[in-house]
Specification:
With about 375 residues, the protein is of the alpha/beta class. The chain has 2 domains: about 5-270, Acetylglutamate kinase-like (Carbamate kinase, 3-Layer(aba) Sandwich); about 280-370, PUA domain (Archaeosine Trna-guanine Transglycosylase, Chain: A, domain 4). About 35% of the residues lie in helices and about 20% in strands. The protein contains 13 helices and 15 strands. The strands form 3 sheets. It has an 8-stranded mixed beta sheet, with helices on both faces. A 5-stranded mixed beta sheet has the order 12-11-13-14-15, sandwiched between helices. The chain has a two-stranded antiparallel sheet with strand order 6-7. Helix 3 crosses helix 4 and helix 6 (about 155-165) packs parallel to helix 8. The protein is globular.
Length: about 375
């Protein structure tokens, strides 16, 4: 992969570190936030889909309460996060509205990645927000999270979100230019690394320092995020937020920051997970019109195209999709159980609520969760 290839990205996750949107005293840096909003809004105008994973809630709370030091207890951190999260989203809404962009707050905890229904719901919610042209702004739910549910840092969270939404590019903005072969704050002779194709144990050993006093991560956590994205087929760029128009210029292919090259592309990684990583729990037979919609037009599977259902399976499980000749043409993650799909088979989407008593989704299988075999 080369830098110029990043211009092909249509879905982009931008992780914003605490230092990227706050002053050293924790108060929000409005100039930094305005520049970020302008860059991201411009990407939206280009037809890109953008998700922001934003740190800064605890820091903003510290600034708002004029608290003089980093919180040492979990309840205090959660209280400051509750204060800061509102202020943070208020300013995001203000700046993005100036560029006619809508934003939505999404707070996540670890358990959604360990529960198939929560994972599916989060995936579909974020996908719907992007379909509506909304920019999701994601943070860990610091106000209620407990130790066993903590991501630990938003670097890891951004990598997991990137995998969740099948992003084409992850950009992590921080307060240094990217990866060095040693800590540049301690070793002035440290060399800058522009491209990484493999993360070595030596890299991890030398990157054990933390970032700013208000942040939870550092280069080590960014390398852990890079390992996840590279395995998921997602390119990652770590860059300095102080570079003018940094996000736009990265997407345009400029040699800014450190590029971590994935082992496979994201489509291949996701296809491998759905096609081979999960055992099929049943099958859905569809009509010829649905076959054409799925295989030729890249559409989602709607109930109107379903002919019959085989097996017993619940929401969030993987099933095979069969042609009228019982040939396996696809595999995907279902939004409804086998019993529910049997009841709505052949029906229009506007009839789902009347038949089931509820309608959580229009699609039986969303195109983002469907792989053609």
């Amino acid at each position: 992969m080369e830098r110029k290839d990043l211009g092909n990205a249509t879905r982009i996750v931008v992780k914003v570190g605490t230092s990227s949107i706050t002053h050293s005293n924790g108060k929000l840096d409005l100039l930094k936030m305005e520049k970020l909003a302008r860059d991201v809004s411009d990407l939206r105008n280009m037809g890109k889909e953008v998700i922001i994973v934003s740190s800064g809630a605890v820091g903003a709370g510290i600034g708002a309460m004029d608290y003089r030091e980093s919180p040492l207890t979990l309840p205090l951190m959660q209280a400051l996060s509750a204060v800061g999260q509102g202020a943070l989203m208020h300013m995001y809404e203000k700046f993005f509205s100036e560029y006619s962009c809508k934003v939505a707050q999404v707070l996540l905890t670890w358990d959604i990645f360990d529960d198939r229904l929560k994972y599916l719901n989060a995936c579909n919610t974020l996908g719907t927000l992007l379909d509506l042209g909304v920019i999701p702004i994601i943070n860990e739910n610091d106000t209620v999270v407990v130790d066993e549910l903590k991501f630990g840092d938003n670097d890891k969270l951004s990598a997991m979100v990137g995998s969740l939404v099948n992003t084409d590019l992850l950009i992590i903005l921080t307060d240094i230019d990217g990866l060095y072969d040693d800590d540049p704050r301690k070793n002035p002779k440290a060399s800058f690394v522009r491209k990484v194709e493999e993360i070595t144990p030596e890299m991890e050993t030398r990157s054990g320092t933390k970032g700013s006093s208000l942040s939870s991560g550092g280069m080590y956590t960014k390398l852990q995020a890079a390992k996840m994205t590279m395995a998921s087929g997602i390119p990652l760029v770590i860059a300095n937020h102080q570079v003018p128009r940094v996000v736009r210029r990265i997407v345009e292919g400029e040699d800014i920051g450190t590029l971590f090259v994935p082992k496979v592309d994201s489509c291949q990684a996701r296809k491998r997970w759905i096609a081979f990583g999960r055992m099929s729990q049943g099958s859905i037979q569809i009509d010829q019109g649905a076959v054409k919609a799925l295989t030729e037009k890249g559409k989602s599977l709607l109930p109107s195209g379903v002919v019959s259902v085989s097996g017993k399976f619940s929401r969030g499980t993987v099933v095979h999709v069969l042609s009228p000749e019982n040939r396996r043409i696809a595999k995907g993650v279902v939004n409804y159980s086998a019993e529910e799909i049997s009841r709505i088979a052949g029906k229009q989407t506007d009839m789902i609520a009347d038949i089931l008593g509820h309608k959580d989704y229009d699609e039986v299988i969303h195109r983002d969760n469907l792989v053609i075999l």
